[in-house]
Structure formats: structure tokens, C-alpha cells
Predict the 3D structure of the following.
Amino acid sequence: MKLAEALSERSDVRRRISQLESRLQTNAKVQEGEKPAEDPKKLVQELNGLIVRLEELITRINLTNAATTDGGESLTALLARRDCLAVKINALRSFLDAASATATRGMRSEIKILSAVNVAEYQKKLDDLSGELRQLDVRIQALNWTTELQ
């Protein structure tokens, strides 16, 4: 199994666990004399099986990420860099949105609000970071599709 396939299955298992949680909530209580639409015991058994599978997938994915290298860097390090780049990009984007917002004045005597930074300069930095993130993501995706799961 390729790493990408395991990642896809992990996502599917997480989605199924979430659905089971909802179904368990729906069938947790019934009116006296009624039966739940689904047997909660069977739902809990299914949930337990999925959690065991999720733990296995997470373990194997993490071991594979730590053992896989590209250009002298582990896949784990590449993933951490991608996540941090995304955080940096989102923070910078929010900052630029605030810096770019214009304040309207009703009269010329009102205080004029100016940007505290050169927005174009920071936008260029944001564009460069976004390009770096795209390249890094492509590199990670290529590894996901070529790496065998441990």
C-alpha cells in the first residue's frame, strides 16, 4: 500500500468515526417502550473496530513519514514546514487585509488613516511564500504516491 492510499483511508476512517459518533448520540436514548433505530452495542463495536484501524494507520503513517527522506530531509520535517508555512501565510494574509482596508472620511478635517507598512512589498512576500508552499506541497504529494507504507 502506498502512503497516499493510507492517508486516504485514514481520512475515510475519521469520517466514518464521526458519523458513528453522531449515530450513537441519536440512539443513546429512546422513549419508554420504544427501541432505538440502531443497536447502540453494535454501533460501539463498529466504532471500536474503526478506532483500532485508525490507530494502526496513524502509527504506520507516522513511522513511514519519519523514515522517508527527500533531499536529506524527513517527510515529517517537510510536513512540519508545510504546516508552518500555511500558518505564516494565513497570518500575513490577514495582516495585509487589515493594512489594505481603507477608511472613509466624511470631511477633510477628520483624521486620515494610513497603512503602517508598504502593502505591495508585503504582498510580494506573501506571493513568494505561497509559491514556496505550492512547491513544497507538490514535493510531499509526490513522496506520498511513491512511498510504500511501513
